[in-house]
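User: Before I run my own analysis I want an independent prediction to cross-check against. Here's the chain; please return only the structure tokens and, at the end, one sentence I can use as a sanity check.
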Amino acid sequence: MNRYNFKEIEAKWQTAWEAAGCFRARDDEAPAGADGKAKPKYYVLEMFPYPSGRIHMGHVRNYTIGDVIARYKRAAGFSVLHPMGWDAFGLPAENAAMERGVPPAEWTSNNIAAMRAQLKMMGLSIDWDREIATCDPRYYKHQQRLFLEFLEHDLAYRRESWVNWDPVDQTVLANEQVIEGKGWRSGAPIERRKLSQWFFKITAFSQDLLDALESLDRWPERVRLMQQNWIGRSEGARVYFKIAGSNGTTSEPLEVFTTRPDTLYGASFCALSPHHPLAAALAAKDPALRDFVAECDRLGTSEEAIEKAEKQGYDTGLKVLHPLVGGLELPLYVANFILMDYGTGAIFGCPAHDQRDLDFARKYRLEVLPVVLPPDADPGTFAIGNEAYVGDGAIYNSDFMDGMSVPDAKKAVIARLEAQGDGSGTVQFRLRDWGISRQRYWGCPIPIVHCAACGPVPVPAEDLPIRLPEDIRFDKPGNPLHHHPTWKSTSCPKCGAAAERDTDTMDTFVDSSWYFARFCCPQLEDKPLDRALVDRWMPVDQYIGGIEHAILHLLYSRFFTRGLKRFGYISADEPFAGLFTQGMICHETYRDETGQWLYPGEVEKQADGGAVHRDSGRPVTVGRSVKMSKSKSNTVDPELIIETYGADTARWFMLSDSPPERDMEWTAGGIEGAWRFVQRLWRLIDEAAPGLPPADAPLPADLSAAACALRQASHKAVDGVTKDIEAFRFNRAVAQIYELSNTLTAFKAGDSGDRWAQREASEFLARLIAPMMPHLAEQMWHGLGHGDLLATRPWPVANAALLIEESVTIAVQVNGKLRATLDLPRDAEDSVACERALAEPAVQRLLNNGQAPRKVIVVKNRIVNVVV
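Assistant: Structure tokens:
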């Protein structure tokens, strides 16, 4: 036997595929298949990676799943686009520049080269001619052009907004970068500041983005639900509270948005966001309020942080008039838990039916009046304790609404408010416009020039790209572009006067919001997209990536697609027709006696189930299996695995362990088992091939029973694996391949007919594993005497006649209860089924010594029911 040498074999077939251009996508109409029809297109795309320098096991699983689909669809007669690129802008490159003195462009370029080589080791069927990197000026030139088109179509604008400001690093931080109120890198307490920011008007599509979720029936339900909640459509009312004695601060009523106008009679206070215009006006005259607002600012802008913080308020001394209860005045507070970005930045508090309001009311000793009575509760005794009642019920303590249901009360109170001129029904969305300004160097420059006379002026399209300067320094806190001595200095495109470039760069989510469309025409120079090529490939038929991108990336991509359609670049309504979110890769965790995390390679397992340090022999504590992460050192290097076992072994284990949408545990035993199976498959073919008939030998006229059984098993495997790949049931497809290999291993060929069936089954086995273990499949195909590439061969099709079972197992019931089962020839006569059923001992015992049954009901091939 020739041992399977994966290092030589995998390199050989990767070279052969590349030389033959097997995976190059065709932009023209695909050549006709055997049936004379043009091949349908299929666009499969995995979320492109950030070039950190090394792939991790999550990448291996993600790209293996995508590659299985791409290879299968290509074999199944589709013209496939399967590209790769790099989400290459971002803060880590700037951190590397500061820590190691390496320019971000150089660091990123080196990382891309390293990761490209690692991905190629996996044998992915990628069209590398379409490779793009978002940090390439040839890419971001067109992104700048698209920004200008968003601006022209009133889908981009500039305004002041509140941000998290790190006073040490002098930069804006995302909410995720604020840890317990401090900057993630500097450790300095963050401040809330107002800065001029650029925004994309995603709210222009709020209702459309929500409604279109119904059409995404090939997306996971939980992802659609997450997007629905993020968009957050709320039906409610705007209510106007007149301010009693505002000390000349305002004459305008306080506008409040609420989703529960039915609880208006339970209001005991109103409250403002610390950044409400009225709060700002009052703070200008009240130092104590000014200090309170500053304290609120230290919470940052994260909704989660604000929600978890202790509820605090400041009594402004003002009162507001209840719009439905004459003479009732409610205290007006400024409260730390109210967001200016949602609703109107002001609320009325109904403590009895909102937990947050109840906590606030108890703290400040405010009235708690229930106005929704739970079913079966006594209105005379029902009271609110430490928990607000948020369930359904009947309205009471509410004048004209008493006895109404909650929905009816909402309609009635809105009608009353509208009649009085004190409010109106309205729809509110949680979704906010997308702020894209970032005070960083390594990002796409915003193509705007600021002129003292003309204001913000777009850079003409012919002057794009605005390139990042290469002579950048990171020796000062803040934005390096702002500190650059010459880069920002320019002239106004409109009047020619001295002006400055916008020194902000775009949020990296912008880069990933249209890359999928650029893959359709990556070499195009004069415009971002070619309509004909984009319409040839879009939408993406199958998008694959992690659940962590379920909201922002996918939502922004959906928004961008709507913009691209408005600009005339695309016909598709949605970017991704199908979405698959794979599970995470998990591994045990290990700690030494000092509590230090250890890598799996530093640990040696013992026969008794314990573990010790590989070098010192000291005891190691084995922790539970959790997601692989550098912070817990429970990672395994994919490159080391591929060098040790081969790419096919790694791919096979990724597919075989569990359903791909679930988390899977990486184990040494699992990868060893996959390696043994690779060797077993090769041995199976290598040993059998010399005795098999030629590949073009005709089907013999007579086959033995064993040969017929083998043919039936192999055609069933083809049918089952096909269905399982189509349904993303890769682990079940793997199980069927194991079963076929076992059947083939046990088969003992006698005559030439047996050997013909053995060849057919062996070829099926090679073709079925081709999407999963492509290098081994090619070697098996070659070993079976074929001279062409298996990657160019069509997918096998099962013979429907061989899928029909010759016998069936039917149930035998007595008076509807199962008593026995029978194996009968398919479509056996009813009389035969009846005779066999009545002869069963379990049935005989119930027939009282041969007594005839009242009747026998036979459902062919399924059931016999004896009535006694």
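Sanity check: The chain is about 35% helix and 20% strand.
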